[in-house]
Amino acid sequence: MFKSNNIYNVVEKNGLIMCDNIVTGDPTEKKEKVLELFNTTEGWTARYSGITGSGEYVEREEAHNIHGKDIEDVKRNALKLWGSELKLEDVKVVVHK
After folding, report:
1. What does the alpha-carbon distance between residue 66 and residue 61 come to, in Å, rounded to a whole number?
2. I want to staple 73 with a disulfide (CB 3.0 to 4.6 A). Which of 5, 69, 86, 90 is the partner?
């Protein structure tokens, strides 16, 4: 049986506010990796669900004030926040304008 526990944490990391909602549970359960991007007046906000580079599963974790030269650069910069080894082709990206 799958049991999950929610852990919430808010930290500042490299000038960005990171709002964690870490779900712990069965690490072998396959989860889709989803990166959502929202265009705001302060820059892009990213919301990620999936396995991070450190092996944790996060659900709708947010990072704010992400910038880039173009939308592809914004996607890459956002994904780096959750692990440099994560690849865009392995993640479903949804852009909200």
Report:
1. 14
2. 69
